[in-house]
Amino acid sequence: MWGWAFVTPALAILLVFLVVPIVFTVWVSLRNWSGLESPFGGGSQYTGLDNYKEVLTESGLAQRDFARAVRNNLYYVVGVVPIQTAIAFFLALVLNQRFLKGRGFFRTAYYFPAITSSIAVALIFMSLLQPTGVINRILGIFGLDGPAWLDDARGLGHLTLGAVGIDTAPGFLANHEFMGLSWWDWLAGPSITLTSIMFLAIWTTIGTFMLLFLAGLQTLPGDVEEAAIVDGANKWQRFWYVTLPQMKPTLFLVLTLGVIGTWQVFDQIFVISSGGPQKTTLTPAYLVYARGFGNREMGLATAIAFLLFLIIVVFTLLQKVAMRDRDER
Amino acid sequence: MAVVTETSERVVAPISSPVGEGDENQGRSWRIGKRVLGYTILIIFALIFLGPFLLTIATSFKTRPDFAANPLSLIPHPFTAEWWKQGLGIRASEIADVPRWFMNSLLVAGTLMVSRVFLDSLAGYALARMHFPGRRLLFAAVIGIIAVPPIVLLVPKFLVLDELGIYATYWALILPLAADATGIFLMKQFFEQVPRELEEAARIDGAGVFRIWWSVLLPVVRPGVITLAILSFQGTWNEFPHMLIANNDPDLYTLPVGLALIRGTQGEDLNFPFFLATATLTMIPVAIVFFVFQRYFVRGLMEGAVKG
Description:
Oligomer: heterodimer
Helix content of chain B: 55-70%
Radius of gyration of chain A: 24 Å
Number of strands of chain A: 4
Mean pLDDT of chain A: 92
Shape of chain B: globular
CATH superfamily of the domain at 49-155 and 190-304 in chain A: MetI-like
């Protein structure tokens, strides 16, 4: 009885402000609601699966925007997660060297961006990425001409194809479409602006994941590595066949947290680009906000939110399966 | 779980490195080379991670023409404290009421720090040590809640706040975050490490359940309480999406929300020195907490990560 008395205050908060919203997610997504008056009573109408149809199957702006958002975020996840994981792991390995001093200082320096306000960091990056800002000045020293990072919709995919002479969409790419976007548009790649935000995300999150890797490395038993040394394994063999397999739980944790986090990118987009230029930094999370609180289409926004939730669940499960397969081999 | 900060001074695991030592016949010069390479890598990355902050502080003391002409310079020329005066409220700013937002952030993050420590440790203790029907299920539910991506709940959260009639009040900023599942989980972990004999001794002495929790157990899990307190402060001070959808009254903006929203009103020709002074002001409280309580940050991160 005392137990319930102790948990009730916290539980009440979680129930009202998390569990109830979870339940209402599905309910709101099946309605037409402006958010201006209470959806109970006459403030909203049940519209069945209309919101989902508008986003997924009916051609129109809602479908195209959702397709763009998913495309952009897909590129974002595929670009950010491997790079931040690799650099974080690499830095943890370097910092774990016995012969290096000042480890505490470097660890603090690398972790600091992770604990600061995302909004403040976004403003800092905006100042660095101005057309005549710090980054382009540094590039200038090496004779390079940097783009207008935060206002450049050209996709890296299209730029790459352009470099090999394919400037306009070949017929079969232009004529086929999926969810309102031509295959050519799907292949655009992340725009220069989205790529800038990807760098920001990588820069911010490396510190956290580096600490997780560092903690993982420090719990590895030493005798396995010693046995490998006795067996005559060289450094790279020891890394690939001894350290890496033992680090798999940490690796899985970091990849999972990375995927879940990158699918929710919102703050940086809100401050830096509001989805632009030419909607190349639109993401599902930002679309939820823009449609719901901007366009006052709360039902449609919630349908998008629920689809985003499903995407995250599917990606997490896929990753679990991929990691398990490697175990069995 | 070992606290990383401590282990760094006396390395626990002398192994697990791709370029580790061990080959007995290494030359002396090779070893020095390795060290030089290691430090070079570390210093380059330190510049990448800290450089932007140094430039930000420098820019916050520059004039706008100076920033436009010399964004790379670390020395403002001429030096101006104008943007800091505006940010701190010494001089009125035409852009934003930054001092008010700062006080809002302080009020919200401070209140949430106290309420989370209190409510999360109550619940964490009950889940760790008390026997009551439904405990297992409840703990599973808490873990389940941690797994829900918060961004998905923006609209229904607004719905609840609006229906309760607290939208755009301080209540809307504070109440929904007053307890959190991760904090409950963290405190449960800490309470589980306390020896049971301690409670039993107190119970024999005739202390009540609440007394035992408050004056016997809480002091024992002080590291946990400090960890939770600083993580709460950092997390809620920086919190953006919730503070954005819970309120539309400029008088109640927290610093991150105020900064993000006035940026939207300023067009593309931003007054960067002003914005970066305000951004620095936003970072200072968390930075102070971070440098004072650094090892608790790491501990919190590790304890929180175990759930994965």
